[in-house]
Design brief:
Two copies of one chain form a homodimer. In chain A, helix 3 crosses helix 5, helix 4 packs across helix 5 and helix 8 packs antiparallel against helix 9. Chain A is globular and about 60 Å long. Chain A has 226 residues and is an all-alpha fold. The N and C termini of chain A lie far apart (49 Å). Chain A has two domains: 54 residues, Arc Repressor Mutant, subunit A, CATH 1.10.10; 156 residues, Tetracycline Repressor, domain 2. Chain A has nine helices and no strands. Chains A and B meet through helix 7, helix 8 and helix 9 of A and helix 7, helix 8 and helix 9 of B. The first copy, chain A, binds a DNA duplex (30 and 30 nucleotides) through helix 1 and helix 2.
DNA sequence: CCACAGAAGTGAGCACCGCTCTTGCTTTCC
DNA sequence: GGAAAGCAAGAGCGGTGCTCACTTCTGTGG
């Protein structure tokens, strides 16, 4: 392994600067308003120079998305790390961490869980870090507890059971189909709540939405037998 | 009431044409890509002429959003209209109608429940039709059934109970706090599921997501005592 | 040590965008 | 019939993403 040349170092630093500046700009506007030209202007370089680092605006966006997934996964893993707290407590805190992260940087949440950018098709690069997030979300709730969805005795269809098994497998989670179903449902609920909250659908009703969020998360913890 | 002059008629027709074309364009790209100029080009008019009908791009978007809410609310109301079907069946069909609507016109779903457009702040005009939607979602589940969230005996906080009551009041629903909580949770879950599904987060896991959706909705129906 | 390949940065340019403003034409209303 | 209001046109401003031919810089191998 040859040591990195100064040039490589410079390149990495410039790349990081571009990403940081882009993120900053994103924070004060929105995904649509990310302007390569503005970023270039701010790092004191002509717009076309940025294309040495990112082939297109979409590629920059993708880099930011991957970073966001990774950062979020880190947060969740930290909040859910195994320790003396009980499983319920840990899971509740993971949910809280997810909301805190989303509230602190709504633009990043929108980037990963908001509506798709124009023609933008998420490249395969993003699916692994995206998986890390939902894995971190599920882990504390996977270990302990007995529970099954209350599907009034209707057994899950074979197809669904299969999909659930595949998903659990892909996330390296050792949980049965019923529990996986509940976990996916809980994740969707949290994403939905945050989507609604961040987009102002709760204005006039739930503001702040802290209590609402906590009550619903507690309800899901109960259902999961935590 | 004087009869509408030809000019007024023409104006309405042009307005409708603009909206229709804009929607069409939206369907094949995304909210970001709605171009006033392209719309103008397509109806065979110079770009500045469109500003006689909508003061800005945002105003056009707002009009489309209101239309979308109204259309969705119509669909849900139709799916949930009281009849010989039981409450459970009706509510399940409302959920199904919501998903069907979203799958059939993902761009419109993104418009109303996706991440906020750039600097766009939803004007007050949108909150009433938005309310219609969630009301239609709740109505079939409001009437019958006994159920409470499984918050392990922890009573809801006073603040939350208040918020829930205000919300139920605003939606003209006669339901207690616990039930309102579950309904809001169910709505968030459905929105979350659709957000994830439409943005490709289920690729490789749940595809199609029909069975997943149905199982989770059935689970919520159980919790609601339907 | 220094020439030279390749990387980094430049600047002009293309086609597009939202939006404004002036300038005429047409319809409505008194 | 004439004034007022509505409508469309077209030029223009400042912005966007992206390309390309060009120069400047720099690290390395002979």
């Amino acid at each position: 392994m040859t040591p990195p040349t100064p040039r490589q170092l410079a390149r990495e630093e410039t790349t990081a600067r571009i990403k940081a500046l882009a993120l900053e700009q994103l924070a004060s506007s929105s995904a649509t308003e990310l302007s390569l030209r503005a970023v270039a202007r701010e790092i004191g370089v002509v717009s076309s120079a940025v294309y040495r680092y990112f082939a297109s605006r979409d590629e920059l966006l993708t880099a930011l998305i991957v970073d966001a997934y990774d950062d979020l996964a880190d947060h969740l893993e930290r909040a859910g790390r195994p320790d003396r707290r009980g499983a319920r407590r840990r899971w509740l805190e993971v949910c809280g961490a997810l909301r805190a992260w989303a509230l602190a940087q709504p633009h990043r949440f929108a980037l990963v869980y908001g509506s798709a950018i124009p023609g933008y098709a998420a490249p395969a690069t993003t699916i692994e870090p995206a998986g890390r997030v939902v894995r971190a979300f599920c882990v504390p709730a996977a270990a302990a507890g007995e529970a099954a969805p209350g599907t009034r005795g209707d057994p899950l269809t074979r197809a669904l059971t299969g999909q659930l098994a595949v998903t659990a497998e892909a996330l390296e989670l050792d949980v049965d189909a019923g529990r996986t179903l509940l976990l996916v449902g809980a994740f969707a609920q949290v994403v939905g709540l945050l989507t609604l909250e961040l987009n102002g659908h709760f204005v006039g009703g739930f503001e702040p939405a802290d209590a609402l969020f906590e009550a619903l998360v507690a309800d899901r913890a109960d259902a999961l037998g935590l």
